[in-house]
Records
---
Amino acid sequence: MDRKTIYFDHAATTPVSSEVLEKMLPYLKGNFGNPSSIYFLGRESKKAIEEAREKVANAIGANPREIFFTGSGTEADNWAIKGVAYSNRNKGNHIITTSIEHHAVLHACHYLESDGFEVTYLPVDENGLVSPEDVLKEIKPGTILISVMFANNEIGTIQPIKEIGKIAKDRGIIFHTDAVQAVGSVPIDVNDLNVDLLSMSAHKLYGPKGVGALYIRKGVKISSFIHGGAQERGRRASTENVAGIVGLGEAIKIATENMEENNKKLMSLRDRTIEEVLEKIPYTRLNGDRYKRLPGNVNFSFEFIEGESLLLMLDMKGIAASSGSACTSGSLDPSHVLLAIGLPHEIAHGSLRITFGKDNTHEDIDALMDVLPEIVGRLREMSPLYEKVKRGNQYV
Ligand SMILES: *Cc1c(COP(=O)(O)O)cnc(C)c1O
């Protein structure tokens, strides 16, 4: 990074770690062969892909034959949802998901609704938790798929995946989980959890952008999504992103091996930030479950301010974080996740997500706490509502 930045947005993306880059480089240069070619260079690429497949499989307790590489986490989600929907249409047209999924799942479901499928979007409680009983209640004879994310990218809440997996398994319904935020942060065993399909992405765990994977349990009926060549055993065509796949394999391996140690550090940063912010800044709430949450995630709502202004002012101090507004879509609508946990629009607007990574330090939090209370205070000075509260009028 040229300009000195304190980076607090690891849920958005992470840098490629030097260990991962080292493993990738040979496949961008000398070992550039097409994995489908039968000569030495091609075979070397093929071997690298199969080694990566093994690493990914090991990280989630799967068989390497059940791992299929994709072009992203978004593609893995789209494949899981549309692939199951279209190949199981003879059994029914009903899908159960939640109202706090990533747009890769939500928009795939909206698309299916436009094509005759029926989708139930489960509500969540005030901490963002899905209730397994709610899943059970919504199941009907035509239910062909349940898709519940492992951990939420905005508020960090970790869902009761094992309970939901058991419900799905007992009724013979295919169960997909978007584990893009969870892989490498939460121990995962697809057999223990009864998960049938699981989405991953490399760039959320110090791998490269533009590569992901979908775990597909042996025997699950799912149609192909990208048609063309015979790559990925004929199920996902196109010449493989060899370097990217190698990067994903190495990144998952490293993240899984270092999970415990990393999490201990992330949780100490997280818990300190939660305590200090709640103590030093009044009219603030923590979004997401206090304990069932990703080790590196904090998400606050500050009443009487706009998250966008807060982000810009933090940026001027060299701090990169995220807010709950869907700024990617160019709109300033508050996040669907924050609305789903019951926040009123104006409070959802004033939110801040900080997601820690392996290179953050307590000095980074010192720097944050040096400026955050003051910035929030200054923004509140501009709010007419806050004026009223300060004058002792009742909060309206
Ligand atoms: C980032 C993310 C995705 C999308 O992954 P890409 O590789 O960026 O397409 C999907 N789901 C969740 C929960 C994410 O955080």
---
Amino acid sequence: MRGYLVAIFLSAVFLYYVLHCILWGTNVYWVPPVEMKRRNKIQPCLSKPAFASLLSVPCKKCVVVGNGGVLKNKTLGEKIDSYDVIIRMNNGPVLGHEEEVGRRTTFRLFYPESVFSDPNHNDPNTTAVLTAFKPLDLKWLWELLTGGKINTNGFWKKPALHLIYKPYQIRILDPFIIRMAAYELLHFPKVFPKNQKPKHPTTGIIAITLAFHICHEVHLAGFKYNFSDLKSPLHYYGNATMSLMSKNAYHNVTAEQLFLKDIIEKNFVINLTED
Ligand SMILES: *[C@@H]1O[C@H](CO)[C@@H](O)[C@H](O)[C@H]1NC(C)=O
Ligand SMILES: *[C@@H]1O[C@H](CO)[C@@H](O)[C@H](O)[C@H]1NC(C)=O
Ligand SMILES: *[C@@H]1O[C@H](CO)[C@@H](O)[C@H](O)[C@H]1NC(C)=O
Ligand SMILES: *[C@@H]1O[C@H](CO)[C@@H](O)[C@H](O)[C@H]1NC(C)=O
Ligand SMILES: *[C@@H]1O[C@H](CO)[C@@H](O)[C@H](O)[C@H]1NC(C)=O
Ligand SMILES: *[C@@H]1O[C@H](CO)[C@@H](O)[C@H](O)[C@H]1NC(C)=O
């Protein structure tokens, strides 16, 4: 009888141990843990990136088009349109600026405060990617898609009250991309001092991070801030000037400029607006 009890007790302990290992993902066989090898050392062109189903070419050359005033009076449109994937952001228009920035848009990153509201700007071939910075941004999208009432409280600027994009055109950016841009590429601290506004990356840097994940070659156009000339145009459209950006407490432009300089110097990307 005692033998049975001991056997039952021992097998219970064993089962508990096995279950524990399975639940917590530890190694059942008591072998010293081996560092998981990162698989993304060299990405052969044939590997399928995320978003693959949205893209028809396997080996993609991408251009990320910033909204910088540096694109003004340049005629990069035709060059930009020649890329496989064209990533734009926010409400940087194509309409009326075709010569400067081209016509095609594969992905457009946006957030509720920055999305177009004029349906003339909708290109049915564009996938609009919501960059959610706060839980409210997801709620906003949900309310727009389900026809609910939009509560505009909690946005830093009045958000769009209707979507010019059809549901099939919309995706939500994996927050991993934003975290990677903030913590790994721009080296933002996880916690900011109480007297400082927490910084987040500009959509431009997030778009570059996305491009690094889905493209095999990344080129940039329209990325430039010149703070020694506060009257120079901030964007290639509209009338905003650099002074608007210099007052922005939510971005760390210094960190972004260092990052851009670094990836251009290392030839990770090519600066198309180079003159
Ligand atoms: C662009 O060209 C227009 C007309 O030629 C000129 O008035 C304007 O100052 C130029 N803008 C820039 C940023 O060079
Ligand atoms: C969308 O793509 C199709 C197929 O490539 C093309 O024929 C059409 O002109 C494009 N539409 C716009 C508005 O660019
Ligand atoms: C920035 O603007 C100033 C004043 O217009 C100009 O002298 C300077 O060359 C510009 N810097 C760059 C990097 O374009
Ligand atoms: C920019 O300024 C010009 C001239 O002052 C004005 O006609 C135009 O409507 C303004 N554009 C925007 C987008 O505010
Ligand atoms: C901005 O980034 C730079 C470079 O990473 C850093 O030295 C600086 O302290 C940051 N400034 C703020 C206000 O976070
Ligand atoms: C790209 O090149 C232009 C022209 O040399 C320069 O003014 C701009 O700052 C560069 N962009 C970046 C992000 O370095």
